[in-house]
Design a protein that fits this description.
Chain A is mainly α. Chain A contains 16 helices and no strands.
């Protein structure tokens, strides 16, 4: 018989982890991860010269896992407000499928593995940038800004915009104007994207006590800010073409998509009451996802599939 | 000695429910696969980074 003897009462047996692997995958925020992977892929493909596919794949994997770790740590910290919001109360921690401490350990372990792996596979500048991204998302955004200021997602958006810079650094060991422009596009895209959602879910955020822009400054002020950020985003989206790291075709597409973005933002600004207002905000939110996806897809296609010379 | 024996707590084995056993098995498989893929990734990256030099070593 083992020397290690222990006692477990009935209620403790019931408390044994019952989570499935898919619950842990859900902790990683897979939808956010997909955006991170896609924008990081664009960042890697923008890099001059040849990146070995295995090194590129391993770097992307490390960045994706790092983003997933940040998602798990965010769910660990925000478990209290996630439980109050309808949109998030089905997440693994508030629904009781995963213990909060388990999520913390899971997130920290994955973060450490992702950072060290990126350092060993690519370089330590990229690893340091990935570590900074995770730190920024958890400490600066989740722990500080999210619960204190309506500018939370403006400044916090930097964390979501950094992956192209991390990926470019993984491929080259440096930071370039091209990767910074991708950062700027995602950074400027974040406020209208999230505020369109916040306009629809303002009751949810109010219940959780999160000072989102509609709850603090009002829906009309939020609509104005959405329009201003959309007007700034539209020309920024076309900048890769103007700077020569995307084709003229990309530039034309970015102009058309930018104009549509502004048109939808203008409709959100004008439609202020009832179902029409909610519909306008939902449409802008959905289109904003398509907008970023298409811009990144064209960059990936031009640089990854060698279509740049064809489209120029 | 008899005092020590008397102090030994009684072992009560944990009987997991079928759902807990199933989820534990699934988690074990997932961890095993993740670790295996992690080791494979480092193996392939090592070969790619060192190339033919992986075989060059002092005898």
């Amino acid at each position: 018989m083992s020397d290690l003897s222990y006692r477990l009462e009935g209620e403790n047996v019931a408390a044994i982890c019952n989570a499935s692997p898919s619950d842990f995958v859900q902790l990683l925020k897979p939808r956010v991860m997909s955006l991170v992977v896609f924008s990081a892929l664009a960042g890697i493909l923008l890099a001059p010269g040849h990146v070995h596919p295995v090194i590129g794949f391993a770097s992307l994997l490390a960045i994706a896992v790092g983003a997933g770790a940040a998602g798990a740590l965010n769910m660990w910290y925000d478990a209290d407000i996630d439980a109050v919001m309808i949109r998030t109360r089905g997440r693994p921690i508030p629904s009781g499928r995963i213990d909060r401490d388990l999520a913390l350990g899971f997130g920290l372990t994955l973060a450490a593995f992702a950072i060290v792996t990126l350092g060993l596979v690519a370089n330590w500048l990229a690893a340091a940038l990935l570590a900074f991204t995770i730190f920024f998302y958890i400490v600066i955004y989740s722990m500080w800004l999210k619960r204190t200021t309506p500018q939370n997602i403006v400044i916090g958006g930097a964390a979501g915009a950094l992956p192209p810079i991390v990926a470019y650094a993984a491929a080259t060991g440096s930071v370039s104007v091209a990767s910074v422009v991708l950062f700027a596009i995602i950074f400027m895209w974040t406020p209208p994207h999230f505020w369109a959602l916040a306009l629809v879910k303002s009751g949810d955020y109010a219940r959780a006590g999160i000072p989102m822009m509609p709850n603090v400054k009002g829906a009309d002020h939020t609509r104005l800010e959405i329009l201003v950020y959309s007007l700034l985003l539209a020309p920024l989206g076309a900048l890769p073409s103007a700077l020569g790291f995307a084709s003229v075709l990309y530039g034309m597409l970015a102009c058309v998509l930018g104009a549509l973005f502004v048109a939808l933002a203008l409709r959100v600004y004008r439609q202020r009451q009832g179902e029409a207002a909610e519909k306008a905000a939902k449409q802008l939110f959905a289109f904003s996802i398509l907008y970023l996806f298409l811009l990144l897809a064209v960059i990936v296609a031009e640089h990854g599939l060698g279509l740049a010379s064809f489209a120029a | 000695m008899s005092f020590l024996v008397d102090q030994q707590p009684v072992r009560r084995d944990v009987a997991l429910t079928p759902a807990q056993q199933k989820s534990r098995r699934a988690r074990n498989i997932a961890i095993g696969l993740a670790l295996g893929l992690f080791a494979l990734l480092f193996y392939v990256v090592t070969i790619v980074k060192l190339g033919p030099g992986v075989l060059v070593r002092p005898l």
